[in-house]
């Protein structure tokens, strides 16, 4: 019975992963329907915000990883909300012309770190966890902010709203799935989380290799 339950959960997880992979191009199309230009209407800003977190695999992996890690730490969805708020702050910093050196490298390193923590199931204190979620959010938000520079108030506000809603929804979904697995299939939990964390870390490592280190 337990084996069947584990297989059922694994199948559901596989469907979610495949579905997310299929959804990403559709969301990317919604974003790039403006031809890569800065959105100029409320609806364009909203579509851009909704699509942006899952256009880049590194951003999507980090958001999912944040949800999984929040569940493993057992502190509710507050870390997820903190991450989402910090990502909006990161966008704001970019719009304010603040300089975060090697932002793409930091995005990759933070994704790698999130994946490693998930894979190894390392526990964090309240303060280190808060700093981690905030830093990851700021780095990713700063990188995403490049696409919205120069937008007017209406599309900008819509972009930020869409960004906050979609990334929070994705992270909360990952949180809920992880919590369910922990409760219903503890024997699968360790192996499943190790695999998920390793995949997230791999995506982060590829991002790091692509970004390179500043010379």
TrEMBL record:
<feature type="transmembrane region" description="Helical">
    <location>
        <begin position="102"/>
        <end position="120"/>
    </location>
</feature>
<keyword id="KW-0732">Signal</keyword>
<feature type="transmembrane region" description="Helical">
    <location>
        <begin position="156"/>
        <end position="178"/>
    </location>
</feature>
<feature type="transmembrane region" description="Helical">
    <location>
        <begin position="127"/>
        <end position="144"/>
    </location>
</feature>
<protein>
    <submittedName>
        <fullName>Urease accessory protein</fullName>
    </submittedName>
</protein>
<keyword id="KW-1133">Transmembrane helix</keyword>
<keyword id="KW-0472">Membrane</keyword>
<dbReference type="Pfam" id="PF04955">
    <property type="entry name" value="HupE_UreJ"/>
</dbReference>
<feature type="transmembrane region" description="Helical">
    <location>
        <begin position="190"/>
        <end position="213"/>
    </location>
</feature>
<feature type="transmembrane region" description="Helical">
    <location>
        <begin position="80"/>
        <end position="96"/>
    </location>
</feature>
<feature type="signal peptide">
    <location>
        <begin position="1"/>
        <end position="30"/>
    </location>
</feature>
<dbReference type="InterPro" id="IPR007038">
    <property type="entry name" value="HupE_UreJ"/>
</dbReference>
<keyword id="KW-0812">Transmembrane</keyword>
<feature type="transmembrane region" description="Helical">
    <location>
        <begin position="54"/>
        <end position="73"/>
    </location>
</feature>
